[in-house]
Amino acid sequence: VNYVKSMGGSLTWLSELRRKDTEVKEKFEKVLKSFSPRSNFVSFDIDSIISSDCPGVSCPAVIGLSSQEALDICMVSGKNIDTKLLDLSEFNAVVEEKRTSRLVATMIYYFLMGVACRA
Question: Is residue 91 within 8 Å of 58, Cβ to Cβ?
């Protein structure tokens, strides 16, 4: 946290994304827009997805993003004209369950659908 802040970066915590006034995707859109017009990349650690939706990861989350929230973030990231890259980390197809593999593939698909929707 200290390193990211010292380098001028910012962090958005799950509790901030989950506030009841707006949906996760709307909040993530605001996060991405705060970087505009600078290029950005979204690095998505799949350990942040709740283990019931993404089993078999190295550090399963008891509390985390739902698979739908993860997909929404990927779609919003793809739609953002300044997003140049989506990085999905902590996925190992050799040890993960098939459900996790399907979710990761769908996350990539949603990102690419977002890119296709760019104006």
Answer: no
